[in-house]
Design brief:
Helix content: 25-40%
Bound molecules: alpha-methylisocitric acid, iron/sulfur cluster
Structural class: alpha/beta
Radius of gyration: 25 Å
Largest sheet: 7 strands, mixed, barrel
Distance between the termini: 36 Å
Strand order of the largest sheet: 22-25-26-27-30-29-28
Number of strands: 30
């Protein structure tokens, strides 16, 4: 079955005309992402030109996707907006709340039982508002989108930062917070600063142990975790065409790790093969007929340095496998240097667990290549010296991997299959002994490796590599093992060497026909309200945030000055806390508990200016809120990097944090804060970060004059009575200032919908 075929057909009918309009207006050749963005302008009649990197533009994405951990807040907000159905096709995917503990079947049973209330809520909201619902066990959002919904040239947003995975099928797919999803589902324009464009030309061809994952691991090393901020990354060149569609998706998926708005490849035969294999021949035909519109203009391809804001070239024939980490996905080490680098940094060499799969790397190609390594190990009389876990990205993949005998091979070296869900990638791994915080190393083919992310243990050194390298390393049991050069000793005491992996791009026996776990919206669901018990500790109806009272912020105590890396995992931790994703009050108890307090270098221990005691962050914030005072949060570079979870923005709003002032923001988090009505500012002089003292009371003045491009004045009232005035920048445009004034973007939508009702 092809979802929303009519919408896709009508898009392809109009796309050429829209692109030619854009070309007339811009009077120059277009890159692929410009073609897609300009054919999704919200105001179709717009004749304007927009500047990349500066102008905000309103878009009309074709669809919205949400995963269970973010859908709860997104839909609770949507329910407040006063609409009776979603304006664009939308889907919800139950994947994040499934714990990985005892293997797929036991873990699924536990999930269905423990998360019943949330799954029932999501399923009934989906029925009521015409949203497709993918049941627990169906698979991870990005994998399901690639298999079913993504189409070349389309545009979508998703409430998960790895939504760009669909760029593997030529889609502009962008990760956002739930409030953005509400904009699109309520039929409003969705606003984005027109991204800059980084062009990456791939030449040569991958071979041996190198894989698509190594391309993005290398790119992450080159550009760092913030190098893609505000940019689309466009891949092209002969090398790009030699990569499978799912390999392209892996690369686009992990573009989130460099902060990119999204990543994309032009339409090619690999995409056509994938569309055909997944039962979407009609879309392949439509895309084929529009091929010229689904890649950059030839002038761009022949002189990329002229048209892209930044241009990089990578020769795949020279690319060696990379291992990135620990604790950050951009610390890239080529495998040939791992011995030297690990020794120098004292990284524990013994690998306890190797994990493959996840939304990033569980294609048929990934599984078959890893399984070839496992088979080779069996033939050589080797088993895995580390534990070895497999997390299939979807039921579809699980089914064919099992059918085609790959799981047997993994089991033969000691592997265990987890449920088709996020599980160990998001702290949902109930790993034995992790609570004792032992120092240890794991390696996985997921995308993120921030502290505590996999198992909650801050001392787990997590490294990221391709599935085939993870498999080889799990077999060797050592982080510094290089399968290209090193040999192993087998059970007969003989020295043996693993062969290069080999795999199959698409299943030779097809994808088969399975119960994919999809639930079509049901008209019965339209009747009656959505019930949420007031007793529930997992779901809570949202109350609108209060409007700004028009007054300056005066004498706000500093809540926390966060030191160094502060990702959304530090701001609103996952794992245990995922269960409160639909309950703002309860989840606010995790606010900033992972952030390091600049003044004592501890986590979750900050000065309460009222009591003079050091207390947990949420407790201090609650104490200020209870006394009717707001507070200010200070942060470092790339504040809020990582995920799209808007809880990281709703929690401070709920806790009465009035402003967050940082050296720089990650895109999604900054938008999330703005949308929820928290004032987001950046130091105009980054050195001013050092002027903030622990006992400071902070004024933010002249807020009535808040205007696009105009600096804001911040007065630091130090404990010794001295005052210091500093300037802060902001990135609000006129419309966004209205969000701040209204108390949240949603308050504005509600007002507008009330008027039109
Ligand atoms: C992640 O990979 O960090 C997550 C968990 O998928 C998040 C979403 C969430 O926190 O629910 C993301 O990437 O946006
Ligand atoms: Fe799930 Fe991990 Fe993918 Fe996020 S990155 S969607 S947690 S598998």
């Amino acid at each position: 079955m092809i979802f929303d075929l009519e919408m896709i057909q009508s898009f392809y009918r109009e796309m050429p005309g829209r692109i030619s309009n854009a070309r007339k207006v811009l009077r120059r050749p277009l890159t692929l992402s410009e073609k897609i963005l300009y054919s999704h302008l919200f105001n179709r009649k717009s004749e304007g030109t927009y500047n990349r990197g500066t102008d905000y533009v309103e878009f009309a994405p074709d669809r919205v996707a949400m995963q269970d951990a973010t859908a709860q807040m997104a839909l609770l907000q949507f329910m407040m907006a006063g609409k009776d159905h979603s304006s664009v096709p939308a889907s919800v995917h139950c994947d994040h709340l499934i714990m990985a503990k005892e293997g797929a079947s036991a873990d699924m049973k536990t999930a269905v039982y423990t998360n019943k209330e949330v799954y029932d809520f999501l399923s009934s909201v989906c029925n009521k508002y015409d949203i497709g619902f993918w049941k627990p066990g169906a698979g991870i959002i990005h994998q399901i989108i690639l298999e079913n919904y993504a189409f070349p040239g389309g545009m979508m947003i998703g409430t998960d930062s790895h939504t760009p995975n669909a760029g593997g099928l030529g889609m502009v797919a962008i990760g956002v917070g739930g409030a953005d999803a509400v904009d699109v589902m309520t039929g409003m324009g969705w606003e984005l600063k027109l991204p800059k464009i980084i062009g990456i030309k791939l030449t040569g061809k991958l071979s041996g142990w190198s894989s698509p994952k190594d391309i993005i691991l290398k790119v992450a090393g080159l550009l760092t975790v913030s190098g893609g901020t505000g940019c689309v990354v466009e891949y092209f060149g002969d090398g790009a065409e030699s990569i499978s569609c799912t390999g392209k998706a892996t690369i686009c998926n992990m573009g989130a790790e460099i902060g990119a708005t999204c990543s994309i490849f032009g339409y090619d035969n690999a995409m056509s093969r994938y569309l055909n294999a997944t039962g979407r021949k009609d879309i392949a035909d439509l895309a084929g007929a529009n091929r010229e519109h689904l890649k950059s203009d030839s002038e761009v391809l022949s002189d990329p340095a002229k048209y892209y804001d930044k241009f990089i070239e990578i020769n795949l024939s020279e690319l060696e496998p990379y291992i990135n980490g620990p604790f950050t996905p951009d610390l890239a080490t080529p495998i040939s240097r791992m011995k030297e680098v690990a020794e120098k940094n004292n990284w524990p060499d013994k690998v306890e667990v190797g994990l493959i799969g996840s939304c990033t790397n569980s294609s048929y190609e990934d599984i078959s290549r890893s399984a070839s390594v496992a088979k080779n190990a069996v033939d050589l009389r080797l088993t895995a010296r580390s534990e070895f876990k497999i997390t299939p990205g979807s039921e579809q993949i699980r089914y064919i991997a099992e059918r085609d005998g790959y799981f047997k091979l993994f089991e033969a070296i000691g592997g265990e299959v987890f449920a088709n869900a996020c599980g160990p990638c998001i702290g949902q791994w109930e790993r034995k002994g992790a609570d004792k915080n032992p120092v240890n190393t794991v390696i996985h083919s997921f995308n993120r490796n921030f502290a505590k992310r996999a198992d909650g243990n801050p001392n787990t050194f997590a490294f990221v590599a391709s599935p085939e390298i993870v498999t080889a390393i799990a077999i060797s049991g050592k982080l510094t093992f290089n399968p290209i050069t090193d040999s192993l000793v087998n059970s007969d005491g003989k020295e043996v060497k693993l062969s290069e992996p080999s795999g199959t791009e698409l299943p030779p026996n097809g994808f088969g026909s399975i119960d994919n776990g999809y639930q079509k919206p049901d008209n019965e669901g339209k009747k009656g309200p959505i019930a949420i018990s007031v007793e529930s500790d997992r779901l809570q109806i949202l109350e609108p945030f209060q409007e700004w009272d028009g007054k300056d912020f005066k004498a706000l105590p500093l809540l926390i000055k966060a030191k160094g890396k502060c990702t959304t995992d530090h701001i609103s931790m996952a794992g245990f806390w995922l269960k409160y994703r639909g309950h703002l009050e309860n989840i606010s108890n995790n606010y900033m508990i992972g952030a390091v307090n600049f003044f004592n270098e501890k986590t979750n221990s900050i000065l309460n200016q009222i009591t003079g005691q050091y207390e947990p962050v949420p407790a201090v914030a609650m104490a200020y809120k209870a006394s009717g005072i707001g507070s200010v949060v200070i942060g470092d570079e790339n504040f809020g990097e990582g995920s799209s979870r808007e809880h990281a923005a709703m929690e401070p709003r709920y806790l009465n944090v009035k402003a967050v002032i940082v050296k720089s923001f990650a895109r999604i988090h900054e938008t999330n804060l703005k949308k929820q009505g928290v004032l987001t500012l950046t130091f105009s002089d980054k050195a001013d970060y050092s002027k903030i003292l622990e006992n400071d009371k902070i004024d933010i003045i002249d807020l009535k004059l808040l205007a696009p491009g105009k600096q804001v004045t911040v007065v630091l009232n130090h404990p010794d009575g001295k005052k210091e005035t500093i300037k802060a920048n902001h990135s609000y445009n006129a419309a966004q200032i209205e969000w701040f004034k209204a108390g949240s973007a949603l308050n504005l939508i509600r007002k507008a919908n009330k008027k039109s009702a």
